[in-house]
Design goal:
By secondary structure, the protein is of the alpha/beta class. It is built from 11 helices and 17 strands. Strands 3, 4, 5, 8, 9, 16 and 17 form a 7-stranded mixed sheet that branches. It has a 6-stranded parallel sheet with strand order 12-11-10-13-14-15, with helices on both faces.
């Protein structure tokens, strides 16, 4: 039986633009259909900014953000099955729960739930020692996977987003696939693409990350100004996944697609500008541009199982941080400085 404290430490945002303050808060008891999780690792995602700085998506303050979480169940409320036992290693991603009744849910498209919740926006997030979560949001994780909780946490948002983006292209092993951008999503995208058997071409704004891209598994590398060189060598890409934080950079990918090529956009550039494509490029080559949002808990379970399979595990590059430094760590993340994920780590 775990000794659950009456209070625990949390990074709290009191209002939009007010940053994070570390304070003691009451430890909640799980309500019906909820579990209480002792957090082991909570990764900072750039999307935390939408809640902390902008109060977006109807968030209510005070709030603790964080939607890339790994921990253990220490208590559960009524209505939670024995599949979610105390002591189970679990995670939480972007999807914080769904109604199970709307049309999207009844079709099994839980990511499109009309009443869907987002972890760290509409429910408490992971930048704290304990939190409650709805059972349908909980991701069951493998023990002894070879990944630490800190390495596993970013897979639950960044990892599933970019891997879903790859899967949505319909690319097959051996196809030329571009992974654009080498940040929190892109460094995982290269690894997932290589593991899936694609011929992986990494693209970045400059050459500074070339060696890292090749080390992560890319077969080839081009900088943003070498589009013509890429076309001469490959003719075009069957697929491209755009993770770069720039609308102009994303727009530049379309001319690099082969006939019937597919591009997926997996992030929202903070510059606020629209993507721009020449209609002739879309029409003449029959290209497709798709948007992808995060999957749900069962999708994350499948993703993590794939990530840890075999010797070539997909491993997040992380910087271990202390919760006491939460506001400084958050600002560092918001400025795009980490290579590639800052993660709060807690004692087990």
């Amino acid at each position: 039986m775990v000794n659950i404290p009456k209070e625990h430490k949390a990074a709290v945002c009191e209002g939009a633009g007010k940053g994070l303050v570390v304070k003691m808060v009451p430890t909640p008891k799980p309500e019906s259909n909820q579990v209480l999780i002792k957090v082991l690792a909570s990764s900072l995602c750039f999307s935390d900014e939408f809640a902390v700085d902008h109060g977006a998506m109807g968030v209510k303050f005070p709030l603790t953000p964080g939607h890339e979480v790994v921990g253990r169940i220490v208590q559960k409320g009524s209505g939670v099955s024995d599949e979610f036992k105390e002591g189970l290693l679990v995670g939480l991603g972007w999807n914080g729960g769904y109604c199970q009744q709307c049309e999207a849910c009844r079709k099994g498209e839980f990511y499109g739930c009309n009443n869907g919740l987002v972890t760290g926006f509409h429910t408490e997030g992971g930048h704290q020692e304990y939190l409650t979560a709805r059972w349908e949001a909980v991701v069951k994780l493998p023990e002894n996977s070879g990944l630490s909780p800190a390495e596993m946490a970013p897979l639950l948002c960044a990892g599933i987003t970019v891997n879903d983006g790859l899967n949505a292209t319909g690319a097959k092993p051996g196809d030329v696939v571009i992974v654009q951008g080498l940040g929190g999503l892109g460094h995982l995208g290269i690894q997932f693409a290589r593991k899936a058997g694609y011929h992986v071409v990494a693209m970045s704004g400059g050459d500074s990350k070339k060696d890292l891209a090749l080390k992560l598994g890319a077969h080839d590398f081009f900088n943003a100004k070498q589009g013509e060189e890429f076309k001469k060598k490959y003719g075009g890409a069957k697929a491209a996944v755009a993770t770069a934080p720039s609308s102009a950079a994303i727009s530049s990918l379309l001319p690099l697609l082969a006939r019937n090529g597919v591009m997926t956009v997996v992030g929202i550039p903070p510059d606020g500008k629209n993507l721009e494509f020449a209609p002739m490029q879309l029409v003449s080559n029959r290209c497709t541009v798709k948007g992808i949002t995060c999957g749900c808990s069962i999708n994350n379970e499948e993703l993590v199982d794939f990530a840890v399979l075999g010797d070539n595990k997909v491993r997040s590059m992380v910087n271990i941080k202390k919760l006491d430094d939460a506001d400084a760590v958050y600002k560092d993340t918001a400025q795009g400085n980490p290579r590639f994920r800052n993660v709060f780590v807690f004692d087990e």
